[in-house]
Each structure stands twice: as structure tokens, then as C-alpha cells.
Amino acid sequence: MCKTPSPSLFFPLFTLFVLVSFGQLQASIITTPTDLNVGDQYRLVFVTSGTMTAESGDIADYNTFVDGFGDVAIASDWKAIGSTSEVDASENTLTRPDVDSASSVPIYNLAGQRVADGYVDLWDQAILAAIDVTETGTEMSTYTQAWTGTTVEGDASESGVLGEGYPLDQVVYGYVGLTDFQWIRANAVPGTNINHVYGMSGTLTVSAPDPIPEPASVITWTLLGIVGCVGTWWNRRRKAS
Question: DSSP strand E in the chain: where?
């Protein structure tokens, strides 16, 4: 039974409820695709919320960069979807259509949308959904730039690879909100500029659902109950006055 709460509690509790609910909506990401079954494997892709230059020719620098952001969404061995003169993007992410075809799995963005049915589909010049969601769930604008140094086939660009852009140090980038070839190769700008970077997770497996409610859900339902009690008390008070 709801006890009569102090009037001074109503607005602080209501404010807390709104903030928690809004925070959940703002930070919403999907790390387990809804169209897969328990035991199915998949990979995730995202665009970093942070930016960096493309002056380094060492792919490890880009891998470390995206891994730090990717682990905010889900712990994995995140790799940059980028090419240097020493390594192709498809090799760095183990998505080569010929060599890695046996381990091919569907790929999703952090909005739960399927980006590619597999590795061949990823490197066929177009993708199914944009890679425009960051590790925290923010959707970037269409023409936000992400360094790639890569061709539509997943190979290092003949000109414009990460760290060694040519001519005039021009490094290839893609537009995060597009799904045609421009997602990976739109244009080139000086590597001294700062841009975002695409990241891809290692292979993940759909696990059985956890029967225990998430803490955020418990908080939400608790606050809803409190607000309900306050509402009941308020109505009774109005009728009594």
C-alpha cells in the first residue's frame, strides 16, 4: 500500500525519472541483433565519436584508437576498417572475401541494422545500412568523414592510404551516412585533418537471454511505482480539499 509521501519529494523524484528515462533513450545501442538465434555468430561495426589525424602509417595506431571506443559498447578485439601501405582493410579486419569466406558472418551497426550479409557483401561496393552510429548510440550526420585509405574492394588505395597520402598527403575518407561506394571511398583530404574512424568487432555469438532485469530497468520501474503513489496521493488530496 502506498503511504502518503511528502510533497517535497514529488518534483525531485519526477525529475530523476525523466533524466533516467531520457538517458536510456540517448545512450541506446543494440549489440545483439534481433534477427538472429541463440548460437548464431555476427560482428558489429561503428564509427568512433572521437577523431584523429591520418598521419600514422602504422595500422596498430588506428586499431588501438577504435578499440578504446569500441569497448565502451561491448568488449571485443576491435579493428579499424582502414588501409595503410602495409595492410589492406579487409586483411586487418579478417574480412577478405576469398581467404576469410569460411568464417564469414553477418555484420551489424549499433542501431541493430544489418550492414552486410557477409564479407563478400561488405566489399561489393555498397552496404545495406550506414555505419553512422557511435559507441554511445549517437547517430552522426550523413556527411561526417571517417578515415579509410581504402578502395571499395577492401584493398589499400593506390593513392591516399593512411599515413602516406599522395599527392599532397591526401588521405581517402568515407561518408558515414552513405551506403553506396562513398561509405568507404568518397574523397581525400590532408592527413593532418582530424576525422573519425570505422571500427569492427571480433566475431560475437548470440547468447541465451539473461532472466535478470537490467539495473536501469529496475530503476525505471521503481521510479514509475513511486510516481504512481505520488499521483494517487495527489488525487486524494485534491478530492479532500
Answer: 41-47, 79-80, 107-109, 114-116, 145-147, 170-175, 187-190, 196-200, 204-205
pLDDT digits (tens, 9 = 90+) for 19-60: 444 443 445 899 999 999 999 999 999 999 999 999 999 999
Nearest 5°: phi and psi at 57?
Answer: -100, 10
Domains of the chain: 41-205 (3.10.100.10)
d(CA 38, CA 29): 19
Contact 63, 147 (CB under 8 A): no
Q: How many angstroms separate the CA atoms of 149 and 182, rounded?
A: 12
Judge if pTM exceeds 0.90.
no
Cα end-to-end distance, the chain, whole Å = 22
Greatest distance between any 2 Cα atoms in the chain: 81
